[in-house]
Structures are given as C-alpha cells and as structure tokens.
Design brief:
alpha/beta, five-stranded mixed beta sheet, seven-stranded mixed beta sheet, 9 helices
C-alpha cells in the first residue's frame, strides 16, 4: 500500500507540474493534444526503449505450442474500473499469453491513472501467483499478507522477481485521449514507451518469433521521427537476427497495433486522420512487414477489412460509458503451433453501476 500511495503522489505532482509549464494545443486536424507532440514522445520513447532493450519484451510460449492473445480498445477508464478489470480477468482466466490495448486507456485525470495503475498492480500479483512459484521469506505471521515478503520464480527462464517487478504482459499503445490535458506525463509514468515491439519465441531450431509492433498514432500521424526510426529498421528485428547469426526471416507472424484507424467503418463514421501520404506509407510498410493482422481503435465502431494479405480489425470501444450494454468488445487471436491463425470476438458482461 505504501508503494501505491507513493505512486499516486508522483502522478499527482507530475500532472500539476505539467499543467504549470505548458498549455493545451489543438492540432491541424482539430484533435486536442498536449504540449508534448509525437516527435518528442517518439524521442523519449526510443531513448527508454534503447536503454532497456536487454530487459525488454521477450515472451516464450509454453512447450513452443499453441497460444492466444487478447485485444481491447478505448476503455476510457475513469473512477469505474469495471470493464478494464473484466478484460484483465478474462485474459488471466483464459491463460492468454499477452493483452494488448489500442489506446484511450483512461480519460486524463491523475486519479484515473492512479486507479489504472493500482488495478494493473493487482492483476500483476494475480498473474504472478498463477504463473510463477511463490516463495515466502518472512519470519512471522504479520508479514504473510505483505507482498514485499514474497518473491516469484519463473522456472522456465530461471529468474525471480519481487511482487512489484513481475513482468506483466499488458501492452498498450497511446491514444489521443491519453495525451489531452498533458496526459502523456501520466501515461508514460506507467508505460514508459509509446513505440516498441514485442517478440514471442515460437521455435527453437531454427529460432523463430512472432512479432508484435506497437505504433504511436495518437496525433493521427506517425511524425518524421517515427518514420525515420522505422526506415532505420528499429522494428525490423535486425539486431536479434545479427546476434543469432541466422539467415533469412526470423519472423513467422507479424501483428501491428495502432490507436488511429486507417479505414472508415461506414459513411457515418470518422475517416482516418492520417494524411493520405502517410496512409499509403503505412499500407506499404505493413506489406513490407508481412503483417497478418493490424488492430486499430479510435472510432468506437467495429470494422473488418482486408488489403492484400493483411486483415484490418477496428475494435469497438470497451468503455461502459460508450458501450453500456454487454457485447463483443474484445478480440482473441488463436495462433496454432503449425502457424495457422484464427480470431474471435469475445463478449464483455460488465455494465456500469446504477
């Protein structure tokens, strides 16, 4: 509890300082954004990513077999964490390998992000108790309820973690609502980077990965810095390929996650806010990456389209305010050991308290 209170104080202080030193801006496309634009976010994110690459996201499928992952979008969490809690519980109950979120995770108030981080910490501990070996090193009954007196051992990778440092496989992208009212300070305090990738080991010989790419599209643009890094191959896995000395592609499947959508779900819905040149650039880049599925949010409207060999899924909002009734707001992807992919929509039952 001390950690949570300290984190809450840091979030509140950070938000206050950001409000004092900067003002709100409106982008050319009419979307309210904070003083920290996409170029600065990408520079900050890439710096963090580069400094923590050795400890960054590498997941291993049990027995290198089948696995699933869960995707949600636009939770717009406020004081009610019910839908986000339901998503994390669904993922835990189903043993999904990872959970991805497509942005607009919370509406930007410090108290909402405190609620969000406390929820993630709660499910990090539940995940640790389910997946790892729990070792108690306290000396009396009083400390048995204190998570600081436990370590969690990952027997597969032969690593141990404190309760607060267990690598919890929740991977979000940043959305436009996450950066309004200087929300980047709050979002980045929890998730650190808005531009990164995740590797899932699916074969040991030869060494093959499924590749998960998370883009920062919160401003409705990639920006020059993000395009430059993509062109430099930051997300192409070249470093890993070079380190293992393996020729040819090291990726079996590629999945891409973006907040801003590319396609218009219907004539009554918002079109993409990307400039036309960026839209074509992204479509070509997804072909270059051999992307199997691109996941998008933002417009709170389900859509499924295909361009070339790539499937584009735009998810409904899982927020109880936007989608008050129960419904199929999540997507679960099934990836088989033989490489086949299928997906299904997953129902959420939580409805807001009256």
């Amino acid at each position: 509890m001390v950690k949570m209170k300290k984190t809450g104080f840091i979030l509140m202080t950070t938000a206050l300082m950001m409000l004092l030193v900067s003002c709100e801006k409106v982008s050319p496309i009419g979307v309210l954004v904070s003083g920290t634009g996409v170029e600065d976010r990408i520079k900050m994110s890439h710096m963090y990513y580069s400094q923590h690459k050795d400890e960054y996201h590498m997941l291993i499928v049990d027995d290198l077999g089948d696995y699933t992952f869960l995707v949600g979008a636009d939770s717009h969490l406020t004081t009610d964490d019910g839908r986000m809690r339901e998503m994390l519980q669904i993922g835990l109950d189903n043993d999904d390998l990872l959970y991805a979120h497509l942005g607009d995770i919370a509406d930007t108030k410090a108290e909402y992000y405190i609620t969000l981080e406390n929820l993630i910490d709660e499910y990090r501990l539940k995940y640790a108790k389910k997946k790892y070996v729990e070792v108690y090193f306290g000396e009396d009954e009083a400390s048995k309820d204190d998570p600081d007196y436990y370590v969690y051992v990952d027997t597969l990778e032969e690593k141990s973690y404190s309760a607060h440092n267990v690598p919890y496989p929740f991977f979000p992208v940043v959305g436009n609502h996450d950066i309004t009212h200087n929300g980047w300070a709050l979002w980045s305090n929890i998730f650190h980077s808005s531009f990164y990738d995740v590797y899932v080991i699916v074969s040991a010989d030869p060494l093959l990965f499924d590749h998960f790419i998370f883009l920062d599209t919160a401003n409705g643009t990639l920006g020059t810095e993000q395009v430059k890094l993509i062109e430099e191959g930051v997300l192409d896995g070249k470093e890993i390929a070079a380190s293992i000395g393996q020729e040819g592609s090291i990726f079996r499947h590629t999945f891409v996650f973006s907040h801003t959508n590319l396609f218009r779900p219907s004539s009554l819905q918002f079109a993409s806010t990307f400039a036309r040149e960026e839209t074509f650039y992204l479509l070509k880049q997804f072909d270059k990456w051999d992307a199997d599925i691109v996941f998008m949010g933002h417009v709170h409207k389900w859509d499924e389209q295909k361009n070339g060999d790539t499937v584009y899924l735009t998810l409904d909002s899982m927020c109880e305010a936007n989608s008050p009734d129960s419904g199929d707001y999540l997507v679960r992807v099934h990836v088989k050991k033989d490489g086949t992919i299928s997906w299904e929509r997953v129902k959420m039952n939580y409805t807001a308290k009256k």
